[in-house]
Amino acid sequence: MTHREKIKGFLSAKKPLVVGAIAEKRTLQSSLSGCDVIELRLDSLGCGKDVVEFAKNAPLPLLVTARGPLEGGQSDWTIPERAKAYRTLIPHASFIDIELRDFDPLEEVIQEAKKEGVVVVGSFHDFKTTPPLDELGLKLDDRADIHKFALMANSQSDIRVQLLLFEACSHLPLSIMGMGPLGAAARPLMAKAGSLLNYGFLGNTPTAPNQWPASLLSEALAV
Q1: C-alpha to C-alpha distance for 197 and 120, rounded to whole angstroms
Q2: At what angle do helices 79-89 and 49-56 cross, to 10 degrees?
Q3: Domains of the chain, with CATH numbers?
Q4: DSSP string, 26-79
Q5: How many other C-beta atoms can be found within 10 angstroms of the C-beta atom of residue 36?
Q6: Each residue of 24-42: pLDDT tens digit?
């Protein structure tokens, strides 16, 4: 069974998956246990020969992200440069993650990924707050196979809004997580509520505020 076939089985069964994010090249040489999916943050790693070779032989399904600077990306790549990075890694990916705000300029990449059987994650990040529920609903785009919302949780009411998003969008595959100390504490709760992709980090570099190590998150979800 290929990685892509395995992932489609997990998603069909609505199995919550732990995604281990890699933002440092040295982590490519490390033990990659404690997660179900590996995220390659191309905006930190680049897409040179070493990254491509890792992708070709990856031990787990890959999620490929070339995050733009407006939502936390670590490079100043233009849209065409990000498109080139995605195209380099699509042959080896099970998922790609593109910000919902960039679906139009990266439309051709989205369609190429879908033709290859790659799952398209449409993501939205707010590093300051959790917007109101109706505002979050306006972010939805039917070109996304999974919608991902990463939102700063400053209060219990923010956590409630995040949980209500599962109810409001119960017909859609979702990945929802809080950032900040309160959001981090609630990440297992989000997985239990139906978040399909649950992010931790591999190596020494988190890719979001207060992100858990992937192995610790995996242990928490197994309880």
Answers
A1: 12
A2: 40
A3: 3-221 (3.20.20.70)
A4: GGGGS---S-SEEEEEHHHH---HHHHHHHHT-SS-EEEE---GGGT-SS---H
A5: 20
A6: 999 999 888 899 999 999 9
At 169, list the tokens. 């969008």
Would you say how long the chain is, in residues?
223
49-88 burial, b if ≥16 CB within 10 A, otherwise e? Answer: eebeebbeebebbbbbbbbbeebbbebebeeeebbebbeb
The H-assigned helical ranges of 57-149 are 79-89, 107-115, 133-137
Taking the complete model, does pTM exceed 0.90, yes or no? Answer: yes
**Among 58, 36, 67, 31, which residue's Cα sits nearest to residue 208?**
67
* Rounded distance between C-alpha atoms, residue 193 and residue 159, angstroms: 12
Q: Which amino acid, one-letter code, is at 216?
A: L
Which H or E run includes 12? helix 3-12
pLDDT, tens digit, 9 for 90 and up, residues 64-115: 999 999 999 999 999 999 999 999 999 999 999 999 999 999 999 999 999 9
Residues 38, 19: Cα–Cα separation, whole Å: 6
